[in-house]
Fold Apolipoprotein N-acyltransferase.
Amino acid sequence: MIALVRTRPLALRLVLAVGAGVALAAGQAPFGLWWLALPALAALTGIVAGAATRRQAALLALFGGAGHFAAALSWIVEPFLIDAETYGWMAPFALVLIAFGLALFWALAGWLAHLGAGWRRPIAFATALGAAELARGYVLTGFPWALIGHIWVGAWPAQVASLIGPSGLTLLTTLAAALPIAARGRGLGLSAALLAAMAGFGLWRLSLPEPPPAGPVLRIVQPNAEQRMKWDPDLAATHFSRLLTLTSDGPRPDLVIWPETSVPYLLDRAPGLLPEIAAAGRGAPVIAGIQRGEGWRFWNSLVVVGPAGGIAGLYDKHHLAPFGEYVPMGDLMFQLFGLRAFAAQEGFGYSAGPGPQVLDLGSGLGKVLPLICYEAVFPQDLRTAERPDWILQITNDAWFGTFNGPYQHLAQTRLRAIELGLPLVRSANTGISALIDARGRVLSDLPLGEAGYKDVALPGALSATPFSRLGELPVLGALLALAGLLAAPRRPRRA
């Protein structure tokens, strides 16, 4: 395949690389077509490995990555269409910028792969691509969305994340795609054996006995406040009343959960707000997403409202979305140049909270690790010193539209449950709200675009997983071992 690709004009190979990247994106939610994504990744590996020069290899990987990210992250245009008359013109530029910006990681992998030759080159690309995807989760605060390993969410191999996390899952996937390119028939057999081992482990883990249920009944509230109208002052009372009604309806649960920024008022500037929420809870604590401020600083927060109307717990989002929730280096620009329009500390964006925090909700409800919105896409933020009993994500996915963004966000939260062996509860403003067990299975959900609530029994937790204890260390070790293998001198051929 490599020799065949090398003879084609560069322009055609660039088109093929883009097509392979787009097909690879079909493995992401909501499609989950891993059986299409894996051959597409193999094709892209062959295209990059067949490049004549390092520059060509980097360019082909860049365009393959751009095709993948443009298709997988097409939801990125949705925030600009909320107020299309003002910001709609920015949407195509944002999509191109993020697609090629993230594809730079793949371009570096393509360049590094060309340092090898023969069978080493496809394996080198698989290794470098695995390392690039790992780096993408950390560099410049990280953005590990649409990782290659995410194609397995919902399939048996996803359970491997409990051992080596999403980066390890990605590395195994890139290797499985590269082996047939590197060694043809023998490589195809090795690839099939690797995939069978991944699927076999997943099937075994899913067949294990279920842990005993945790006990409490939780109410997941989904108010379905459309983003275009969410902050309309004339509708604030209507949206808040809807939340209260969904909370007070039916039998009383043990805990009520509202989504991110569901309360349309500031915590510190709405007297009587908390007692009203507590009254709707009828003796059950209510967890609500709310904004709060101190002077000219503001936080995207989660508050636990106790039965008496007091604050029983508070968490401030710490992993903020660049440009969406704050301007990178905005505070520094204010200090150096007096540019207030970029500074979070001057009220132009959110301030970051101190970091991950486990909240003790008391007897019966246990200890919970709260996550706000896209904090759930960072596995490193869930590895806390104190192991929680369950995970809670509150989010407002109305920003992501209704096509692929909300489904991809849900898929990543499912992976977090697998990685830690903990149940996860998700309350989303417009959906998809869900109850997820400790093996990443969705037990109950509220679909997109519907207002309502679900009373669910919290599933039990599994014992701590290898990934929860070791994090990325096994993957880093595997990458170093592969790099050593690829750098080893060739054995001289016998005469």
User: Anything to note?
Assistant: Confidence is low (pLDDT under 50) at residues 332-344. DSSP finds 16 helices and twelve strands in the chain.
